[in-house]
């Protein structure tokens, strides 16, 4: 969907690309959903996984609030445009998970990358909505290590009354797969390429929307703003 409508409202919001698509969809009466596919590769603790998904949604909803001062140090009023954009973006967000233990349990990032590539290749190009749709170029990966890191934070979270989810560092692994998923192949054979070293990065949960919005600007953004582990992509930096 193009930004055929006046997008002055979406431009005032810190996620202008998602806001534009969400507003156009609402105005035209057509469905629009955004959000990365989440692949689960650890199945030892169902309760922890359920809590992790809850925290993903809570952290993202908190991050989607309109803001002028991201650190919350000033009590500025949000503009009406920002409030409209925030409501549109919140309403169109969805969490989609892949949780097939038989095929995903213990799988590595590269193995899931090929599974994801095969899944994307099964859709016709026109259904994928263009090569800049992040849902078909990147995915989120959750393994035992990610859940173990979350379990440490989750204890503190449970002990906090009315927690602000931006105060807790909870991570996911974001994986790039744009080089292999459009022609139906399952290998880009780029192990010697500089890009092979930038296939995945840690992302704070609240930074997921910003990564999605940035990725809508084009393929190079991932590589230009890549954070080498153990550093992580953050919402404000």
What does this structure look like?
The protein is α/β, with parallel strands linked by helices and 237 residues long. 41% of the residues lie in helices and 11% in strands. It has 10 helices and 6 strands; from the N terminus they run ααβααβαααβαββααβ. The protein has helices spanning 8-11, 16-28, 46-63, 80-92, 101-104, 109-121, 125-128, 144-158, 208-215, 220-224, and strands at 37-40, 96-98, 138-142, 171-176, 200-204, 232-233. It has a 6-stranded mixed beta sheet with strand order 2-1-3-4-5-6.
List keywords for this structure.
disordered N terminus, six-stranded mixed sheet, alpha/beta, 6 strands, 237 residues
Question: Helix and strand layout, with pairings?
Answer:
Blueprint: H1 8-11, H2 16-28, E1 37-40, H3 46-63, H4 80-92, E2 96-98, H5 101-104, H6 109-121, H7 125-128, E3 138-142, H8 144-158, E4 171-176, E5 200-204, H9 208-215, H10 220-224, E6 232-233
Parallel strand pairs: 1-2, 1-3, 5-6
Antiparallel strand pairs: 3-4, 4-5
Helix pairs in contact: 2-4, 3-8
Percentage beta strand:
5-15%
Low-confidence segments: 1-6
Mean pLDDT: 83
Radius of gyration: 18 Å
By DSSP (H or I, 4+ residues per run), the number of helices equals: 10
Distance between the termini: 29 Å
How does the overall form come out from the CA principal axes?
Answer: globular
Helix content range of the residues, please? Answer: 40-55%
Number of strands: 6
